[in-house]
Amino acid sequence: MSELLDRTVAEEYASWFRALADPSRVQIVEYLARQGKPLSVGEIVAAVGLAQSTVSQHLKILTEVRFVLVDAVGTARHYRINTNCVACFPSAADVVMGKPAPTPIGGCA
Predict the structure, then answer these.
(1) pTM (predicted TM-score)
(2) Which pLDDT belongs to residue 102?
(3) CA-to-CA distance for 48 and 50, rounded, in angstroms?
(4) 51-58 own/partner pairs: CB under 8 Å, 24+ apart
(5) pLDDT at 1 (0 to 100)
(6) Which of 21, 30, 58, 84 could form a disulfide with 107 if both were Cys (CB 3.0 to 4.6 A apart)?
(7) Which of 26, 12, 32 is nearest to 82 (CA)?
(8) Can you give the pLDDT of all 109 residues of the chain as single tens digits?
């Protein structure tokens, strides 16, 4: 009988999947990943067509799981994709589907 995925790892992966359980958050992550640079909330709002408060709430959730990182630029905040998470997230999906667990990559949680 095979061993179960470590509980701590399973909880981390579940938090990632929960963070992406909203189509707007998927769009925000995908947009930031394609841009390859930090963007202001206003730039993200213009791209996704949602209210600033809604985008800010989505960004809060995405930063909590560290898919998105925040840079202070004066009094503003700019958001960028966490490339470490981009590198390890597909592995999370693979593991859930029964493929071997990857070596943990720092900065994904």
Answers:
(1) 0.83
(2) 61
(3) 6
(4) 54/24, 55/28, 58/22, 58/24, 58/25, 58/28
(5) 45
(6) 84
(7) 32
(8) 468 888 888 888 888 889 999 999 999 999 999 998 999 999 999 999 999 999 999 999 999 999 999 999 999 999 999 988 777 776 777 777 888 766 555 556 5
Residue with tokens 């990943």: 33
Question: Is there a contact between 66 and 76 (Cβ–Cβ < 8 Å)?
Answer: no
Place of tokens 């408060």: 53
Alpha-carbon torsion 68, 105, 19, 49, what sign?
positive
Q: From CA 26, how far away is CA 2, in angstroms rounded? A: 33
Task: At 105, list the tokens.
Answer: 């990559």
Locate tokens 């958001």: which residue? Answer: 79
Residue type for position 94: D
